Amino acid sequence: MTQQANPVVETPAGAVRGGRDESGEFYRAIPYAAAPAGAGRFAPPAPHPGWAGVRDGTAPSPTAPQPARDFGRLDMTPYFGPGWVRGEEYLTVDVRTPAADGNRRPVMVFVHGGGFVTGSTRAALYDGSAFARDGVVLVTVNYRVGIPGFLDLPGAPPNRGLLDVLAALGWVRDTIAAFGGDPGNVTVFGQSAGATLTGALLATPEANGLFRRAIVQSGSGTGAFTPEQARRVTLAAAAALGVEPVAEAFAPIPDERFLAILPALAGLDLRTETATDPLAGLSPFSLVLPVQPADGLAAGPAADVGLLLGTTTEEGHLYLVPQGNLESSTEADVLAVAARAAADPEAEVATHRSARPGASPGELRSAVLGKALFGAGTARLARAHARISDGHTHVYSFGYRSTALGGRLGAAHTVELPFVFDLAEKPWLHGETGLLGPDPAPPGLAARMHAAWIAFARTGDPGWSAYDPRRPVAEVFTASRLSGEPGSAW
C-alpha cells in the first residue's frame, strides 16, 4: 500500500504543506498578518509579505506573549495551553478540514478565551478533529493579548486584538475555499473573552460581510471598558514602567517587562460615576468602546447575522472553588464583589439571596460574579439581537455539573467547552483535578451539543425555537435533559 504524500495547499501568500489523520487534514501556524514586532505590536495588523517555496504547516505556532495562569488545584492546562511559546510570527490560524478540495463546506472560526491576557490555538481543548470529522472546516485564531492587544494608548489604534480577529476573518474570506470551505457560510464563535470579542464583531461596521452567524459562549454584550476606565489602566501601566502613557514610549519596551508589571495592574478600582467594572476586577484588559456592543448592534452586521448564545449555570465557581474560596467566603466578600459590579450592591445581593434561599455566602458570591461577568451581558445581548434579527436568536443554558474537586466545581465557566468540541471523553480532562472530574461524562451530552453547534453553522437552526424576549426560554444542556426540553432563559 502506497503512503499518501502530505497535502499541499496554494494560498495567496504561498503554498502550505499540512498533514493527515483519521479526521481529515490539518494545517497549522498559517500567518494571516505580518509578525507584530517592536513598534508593530501597537499598529494595526499588516498584510503578511508571503513566502517562497512550501511552508511547513505541521508544527504549531508560537503564541502571543502571556503570563502563566494558576487556578489552584484545578488543572487548566487544556484551556490555557503551554503559555508563552516565543516567536514573533504568532498572528496565525490553524485549519482543520475534511479535505482541501473543491467542496464548499460550512466554516467555523473559533476565538479563544483567557481574560484578554492569555490563550492560544495550541490549547488541547480546541482540537478541531470532531468538526472536520463531521464535515466542517474549523479555523482557530491567535490574536494579540495583554498590553499589545488591549491597552488603550494614544498614538495606537484601540482594540488591536479585535483588529487581529477581523484580519483573520478577512483571511478566511479570501483563502478558505482553498481548504474546502465556503467563504459565504462562516460562523464565528468564541468563549469567555473570545465570546466578548465575537459579540463586539456584531456591532463593528468593518465586520459586515465577513460572517453569516455567530456563537457567544459565556461572553458578554456589556463587557467593554469605557474610555475613562481604560485610561486608568493605561496610566497605571505607564507608571509601573516609568514611561509616558503613549504608544511611542511603549514601543521599545520588551514583552518581558509588559508581563512583569501585570501584577501591578491587578485589582485596579475601575468604578466610575457612570460605570461599574464590567469584569469585576478579574482582568485589567477588555475592549474599549464608547457604547457597549449590546447597545450598538445597529452599527454592525448583527441584523443579518444569526446568533446563538448562552452561559453555564455556575459560571462564578471557576473563580472560587479551585482556590478554596467557595467555603471560606463571607457576607463581606459577597458585598465586596457586588460593589464592583452593581450600582446598588445591597439590592444586588438581596436579589440573589431571594432567588437562592439557603445559599451559602460562597454560592451567593459565585452567583453575583456569574451574573456580573457573563449573565447580565448575555441577556442584554440576546434581547437586543432578538429585536432586530427577526427570529434568528437562539439561547442555551449549560447546567452539567463537573465532579472535579470533590464535586464542588459544578457547571463552572469553561465546563461546556469539552462538549462543544466533542472531547469530553479525553482522559486529560478527568481525574480529581481535571476539568470534568473523576466521573465519566454523561452519555450523549457531547454528541448532542456538538451536533447543535454544527447544525447552527450549516443552517442557522440549532434544533430549538428562536428566542423571544416575551417568552424567554432556553435550550438546556444537562446530564438529565438529553431530550432537549426548554428551560427558563432569564
Describe what you observe in this structure.
One of its GO terms (molecular function) is hydrolase activity. This is Carboxylic ester hydrolase. Residues 6-463 form the Carboxylesterase type B domain. Keywords: Hydrolase. By secondary structure, the chain is α/β, with parallel strands linked by helices. The chain has one domain (8-488): Rossmann fold (3-Layer(aba) Sandwich). The chain has 16 helices and 14 strands. The protein has helices at 77-80, 129-133, 146-150, 160-175, 193-201, 227-241, 247-250, 255-260, 262-265, 325-328, 331-341, 345-355, 361-389, 404-407, 417-420, 445-459; strands spanning 8-11, 14-17, 19-21, 24-31, 54-56, 92-97, 105-111, 137-141, 181-191, 213-217, 306-312, 393-398, 473-477, 486-488. The strands form two sheets. An eleven-stranded mixed β-sheet has the order 3-4-6-8-7-9-10-11-12-13-14, with helices on both faces. Strands 1-2-5 form a three-stranded mixed β-sheet, with no helix packed on it. Helix 11 packs across helix 12 and helix 11 runs parallel beside helix 13. The radius of gyration is 21 Å and the shape is globular. It starts with 7 loop residues before the first strand and ends with a strand.
Write the layout of secondary structure elements.
Elements: E1 8-11, E2 14-17, E3 19-21, E4 24-31, E5 54-56, H1 77-80, E6 92-97, E7 105-111, H2 129-133, E8 137-141, H3 146-150, H4 160-175, E9 181-191, H5 193-201, E10 213-217, H6 227-241, H7 247-250, H8 255-260, H9 262-265, E11 306-312, H10 325-328, H11 331-341, H12 345-355, H13 361-389, E12 393-398, H14 404-407, H15 417-420, H16 445-459, E13 473-477, E14 486-488
Parallel strand pairs: 2-5, 7-8, 7-9, 9-10, 10-11, 11-12, 12-13
Antiparallel strand pairs: 1-2, 3-4, 4-6, 6-8, 13-14
Helix pairs in contact: 11-12, 11-13
Pfam families: COesterase
Organism: Amycolatopsis saalfeldensis
Family: Belongs to the type-B carboxylesterase/lipase family. Belongs to the 'GDXG' lipolytic enzyme family.
